[in-house]
Write a structure and sequence with these properties.
With 268 residues, this protein is α/β, with parallel strands linked by helices. Helices cover 24% and strands 14% of the residues. The strands form 2 sheets. Strands 1-5-6-4-2-3 form a 6-stranded mixed β-sheet. Strands 7-8 form a two-stranded parallel ribbon. Helix 1 packs across helix 7. The longest helix has 22 residues.
């Protein structure tokens, strides 16, 4: 899968299932353990794992985001630059998985690392066509996440020359942002509800793919990525290619969230 400091994911399907009790996650690595932390409050929770080099790996992968951690949760906002038929209600539905993930993280760790934000307007002074081509977006330097914020927007780009041909969403490490890509969504998002209706939209129903992309921004790489790409590995079969294990949805496993604790320690 090609990339150029933009992490691109081949994305999956709908319906993130919160897993807050015994048997949660299915990915409980045998790393050394310490005394139980907040996670022990969840019935059947594995003991808290000892941290190794997760924060250093994540800082190398996404310094603009990881380096901004001050103990307050990152707010995930969506920019209102989508096609006209996409309503605010649709965009709020695309944000809903962030709320569920935030609750899952808090249930395991005892504190929040992300939270669902708001719908925001395109910044004043944005040049015409800033979202029509990846190169124009990347070069304008306008739509960059502020400290404490992660932005999602619509990339109206049919050009397959840049990395991640055919991917429905992309994470842009340069800017702390993620995009919904016309190149893969154009047929499904022509005059239709972009969230939930019909087989054409099965891969983006309820926007669950944003879970995968936000983890990229938080310092995670694909588990199959080349060794020289620095970052914390996503759980195979959970956050990364869940269909390989028979799941149809992206979901954070226990180990993914334990790695978040090591990257984003409580209190900053």
């Amino acid at each position: 899968m090609s990339r150029r400091r933009t992490v691109v994911a081949v994305l999956g399907v709908p319906g993130l299932l919160l897993c807050l009790g015994a048997g949660c996650g299915g990915d409980t690595s045998s790393s050394p353990t310490t005394s139980p932390g907040p996670a022990a409050l969840v019935l059947g929770a594995p003991p808290q794992a000892a941290c190794a080099d997760q924060r250093e790996l994540a800082l190398t992968h996404t310094p603009i985001v990881v380096g901004a951690w001050d103990g307050r949760p990152f707010r995930v906002d969506i920019v209102r630059n989508f096609p006209d038929f996409v309503t605010d209600a649709d965009l709020e539905q695309l944000l809903a998985p962030i709320d569920r993930l935030a609750d899952q993280i808090e249930a395991q760790l005892g504190y929040r690392i992300i939270e669902m934000g708001d719908l925001v307007d395109v910044p004043a002074g944005a040049p015409a066509g800033w979202d029509q081509d990846y190169e124009r977006y990347w070069r304008n330097g306008l739509l960059v996440s502020e400290p404490g914020e992660l932005l999602a927007f619509y990339l109206n780009d049919d050009n397959e020359a840049w990395g991640g041909e055919g991917s429905m969403m992309s994470a842009h490490l340069c800017c702390g942002t993620t995009s919904y890509n016309k190149r893969a969504l154009g047929l499904a998002w022509t005059g239709d509800d972009p969230c939930c209706q019909g087989d054409a939209n099965q891969y983006t129903r309820e926007g669950e793919a944003i879970t995968h992309e936000v983890f990229h921004l938080l310092g995670f790489k694909h588990y199959f990525d080349q060794h020289e790409l620095i970052g914390v590995q996503m759980s195979p079969g959970g956050l990364d290619r869940p269909w390989e294990t028979g799941s149809r949805i992206f979901h954070a496993t226990w180990t993914d969230i334990e790695n978040l604790r090591c990257i984003f320690p409580e209190g900053g």
